[in-house]
Amino acid sequence: MQNNEINKAKPKRSWALFIPLLAFFVLCGVFASVLMSKDYSPDSLPSALIGKHLPDFALSDLLTEKSLSKKDLLGEPVLVNVWATWCPSCRVEHEFLNHLASEGVKIIGVNYKDDPSDAIEWLKDLGNPYKYVIKDQDGSLGFDLGVVGAPETYFINAQGVICYKHIGILNTQNWEGHLKSIYNSLTLEACVK
To answer: pLDDT grade, residue 40 (50/70/90)?
Structure first.
């Protein structure tokens, strides 16, 4: 009789063991739907600054020590490329940036949280694709831009409005695939997505 009482006292919870498994499958479904979405791109993240003006800054040029501000970037479409010598992906991207610059693409570099002497040596060794190289040693401009890592590239129109943010390496594939058309659209008054 005691065994019978023990069995009655234990509630049957075998179905509760399947709740974590069910939750796992639901999350897998959500992730799969995001990854398969036409709008999903792992190299772009939404930015609160899209459609807004480039933040104000007052920093110096890495090579000339000339004082630079937002007004130095206005008047023509530019790419603002955040890079550093400590970033292995930046080294991979650099040759393509040299190619873009040789094709007439205006690129402004933001040397992010880096040692200036290392950055100067890097540009001497690998070439300098940048019109200006903004020295952002403390990361203040990067913070204002919402930088999450390097490399990152911001597409800025002639009025100084941020039209697009690309995270990761710029290369022939993604440039020809969709980034070139975004850059070409920067000559228009408003940002075109």
So the answer is: very low
